[in-house]
Description:
Helices cover 44% and strands 11% of the residues. It is of the alpha/beta class. A seven-stranded parallel β-sheet has the order 1-2-3-4-5-6-7, covered by helices on one side. The longest helix has 20 residues, at 299-318.
Amino acid sequence: MGWSTAPVDHVALTALETGYTAGVRLFDTADVYGHGRSERLVGELVAQVPRGDIVLVSKVGYFTGTAKHGYSPGHMRRQLEQTLENLRTDHLDIYFLHHNEFGPEDRWLPGAVEAMRTFQGEGLIRAVGMRGPHRFAPERLHANPGIRSDKVTRFRELFEVVRPQVLAVRDNLLTPAERSTGLFEFATHHQVGVLINKVLGQGLLAGGYDRKHPVVFSDGDHRLRKRWFTPPARALIEEGLSRIREVIGPAPTEPLELVRVMVWAALSRSQNAVALTGFTSPGQVRMNVAALAMGPPSSAVLDTAREIMSSVAARLDAEGEVFIDER
Ligand SMILES: NC(=O)c1ccc[n+]([C@@H]2O[C@H](COP(=O)([O-])OP(=O)(O)OC[C@H]3O[C@@H](n4cnc5c(N)ncnc54)[C@H](OP(=O)(O)O)[C@@H]3O)[C@@H](O)[C@H]2O)c1
């Protein structure tokens, strides 16, 4: 529901209702999003629809309150209780460990995993989620655990302990394909689902940030700190999007066509993947659902769009404007 560009409550709720009416059934939130505001807004939708119709996802870990650590088991239980109250439900379909920092020597890891298992046993949550690594080299996923102390090895070790049913992964046309393919293969091999985020590059890939319509972020918007939102990076991305527009061809529905490419590029990654798209208006939700309903663009368009954006990603890397903020 956006950051400093987030809409006021009634507009956000209308956007959620618009999504539900159009067929959206999975709603992804977290305790820390707007410090409960996002959950409470989703809760307003939950109160209006049959609970069994929707898949509710929330997360714990970043918001610590006065607890020693976000994964202190007592804190996790209190957060889950608050999350259920905010979402106006008695259970979550997926509960995520929002990050993979479990303190010195993973002190908080066993307790966090045990808490999740207990919540599952009590019927408070159906499935456990964890976040994937941000760099996904396939050969590393298949290397013996413990050999390399890099992010992917660390992820594999944690995966064995947490044994999640769902992974959260960032992926879009600026993510080098070879980095993420390994993770999707890994997920399929382990029969876990994947929720993909950053599908629209936080708005950059939806074509809304061109030089003619500069977007101004207010203080506190995390996009102000991100290098790929700087003018030089935006110019490179815009150049790539213009080339994709040429491939799509002139059409009055062109922003929709661009979003269609982004949404289907994510969905084409895996049969077990869900594409999450953020929004700041009901119109964006309508467009994103319409892009889905159109079905995938031709594989020629998708392949060319991938090629174009991977050369943009290489140039962003070369200029130090790295799109992937974790290296
Ligand atoms: N598991 C995790 O740890 C994790 C991490 C990140 C995100 N997520 C989930 O993923 C969701 C999506 O967030 P994201 O960070 O991945 O961002 P995203 O979906 O890549 O981008 C969303 C932003 O793009 C812009 N936008 C959306 N539709 C558009 C359209 N049709 N035309 C033009 N602009 C459009 C809006 O920003 P403006 O209107 O301001 O331009 C919107 O806020 C989050 O709400 C969250 O549920 C999960």
